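Protocol step 4 of 6: record predicted structures for both targets in the notebook before any analysis. Target 1:
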Amino acid sequence: QVQLVESGGDLVQAGGSLRLSCAASGSIFSINAMGWYRQAPGKQRELVATITSGGGIKYADSVKGRFTISRDNAKNTTYLQMNSLKPEDTAVYYCYAASERTGWPPDYWGQGTQVTVSS
């Protein structure tokens, strides 16, 4: 019904920046919020950022002030601008879409894109 495809993951040095993109297709009428979560080896899944169709935004404390989420409803795309990257940001980043007004849990998610931050 809904397909999400992430892009933009890469290997960067600490302090660098990356911009992740996520394009949604299919039955997007059901989507309220979009966002990103990440999964690193040995760590639990962490919700990174969420944005609703109305522009409401939430961030994890670990990324506040460094990451910025945005959304282009016309293009059915969400972005995650990541600045001042730290080695602990290394993870597979997954884009998700949710029908819930709160933006969680996900109803759809992508295959992930690897972000690796070297020290």
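Target 2:
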Amino acid sequence: QVQLVESGGALVQPGGSLKLSCVASGITFRLYSMAWYRQAPGKERELVASITSVGTTTYADSAKGRFTISRDNAKNTIYLQMNSLKSEDTAVYYCRAGLADWGQGTQVTVSS
């Protein structure tokens, strides 16, 4: 059914910025809420940010003020703009459509 392909992960220095992308297929994208999750080694997967079909956003406390989720329905894509990155942001970041399975993820490493 749904296919989600994340990209944009990289090694970045503390304080730096990164923009992740997720392209979805197999769904009527504009009708779905979308979200970014992340999972660090030894930690549970956690919700980072979400965006509804009409553009309402929600953020984890750790992401507020630093991360911005957005969507482009014409491109079936969501984005996660990450600024002021910290070592604690190091994780594999996953995209999700509604309550479906996550994508394969993209690695973000924040280190000096």
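Step 5 preliminary note on target 2. The first strand starts at residue 3 and ends at 7. The chain has a mean pLDDT of 97.
Proceed to step 6 after PI sign-off.
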